[in-house]
Design a protein that fits this description.
The chain is α+β, with helices and mostly antiparallel strands. It contains 21 helices and nine strands. Among the domains are: 151 residues, 2-Layer Sandwich (Beta Polymerase, domain 2); 56 residues. Helix 7 runs parallel beside helix 9. The radius of gyration is 28 Å and the shape is globular.
Length: 434
Amino acid sequence: MSNKEVTAFDFACSLLLSLETAGFEARLVGGCVRDKLLGLEAKDYDITTNALPEETTKVLETALLKVIPTGVDYGTVTVVSHGHSVEITTLREDVETDGRRARVKFGKSFEKDAARRDFTINSLSSDLRGNVYDYYEGKKHLKEKKIVFVGDPETRIREDFLRILRLYRFKARFRFSYDEALEEILLKTASGLEKVSQERITGELCEIFKSSHLTDVVRSFSKTGLLSILFPFFEQKNSFAKKLIQFLEDLEKLGKKNSLVKFLSAALLISLDGKNSSYVNTVADAAKFLKLSTQKKETILTLVCGFAQISKGFDDHASLLLFAKNCDKRRKKPYFFRDVCVPFWLEMASFLNDETKIIEKIQLSLLVYSKSHYKLLATPLLDAKEIMTLLNLKPGVKLGKVLEERDRVFLNGDIETREDMEVYLKKKFFLSLS
């Protein structure tokens, strides 16, 4: 059987069968069961079993499968095959928690293991024959589109404060509701997120902000104080949250896609209110606090600083094209300016009620870019090495200035041959650089 013929679900079921054949009990658990009941395709499959990690490993290695001890102390091994990976975890009970991590003991009860789960909709399990085990009314809450904690909400949050953001993740993804009384508990426990590593928090935020339904989430962030806890680098004046929520509401009505990067870029433009000099420093502060990748940081810089530049307009077409080329280059995507920057800038210009002139400048920029984009992709008349030889230059700031001028006159259509470019650069730079 080829890799393409084996689905993630097929692979997970084969693992259930292997464990059952060896005399153990095993079930699919958590999100994959929930998503199937919602008619969605599960992204990941997890299994829980009464087999100990070493027993699971022995059974599956005997079946010639690769087993990785990814979290043996917590009873978890990961099985990899057919291009899929499945986590298998021994039934557990929490012994002690400190708001970040739990000390566990292995158990034999599927019901007690389900009691460890955060929400009832995640406590469901299913066996190889498709029987669904529901100890905490998870199916009922799925139908009601409600998020309900397993047990006392405040107790469960204090066991692991990241559950606050997991609550919002499911709210945003499924548009589920929760009891209003939970807002008071969130207000009381929000500061506990300071105990959680920033990497875990940012990971949850990335998932939350993938949703197209963020208005209610950010509104709740504002009410519970989470907005300032999660994003302390924003200048959060009285009208900031209101404007930010309105922006998200406008996007939601239009069915626009979201991301953490897009949210941060919009929020920074709204919070800084035109203070261009603060953009670079604030983006750097945000990236450092959230521990964002260099790639995400560069994207935010391009979107935020680019909005300020394009709002002013450009002296000529070449200046615009060089700016667009730099946008694409920083993100290493040939159409980043066209496909990401321009749509975002138009959304921001419309929302901030800028003069029509700014929108016209952005639209004109897109027109010029589209007509002349072939020049940006064309091989330059002289490459960097040839220019270094021609002008006796070494890599550095001076070379950068020459390359920028080469691109400018080429994009303007002033020079079209190698010979003319050599003459022009010698005349313009030779004496000044010697």
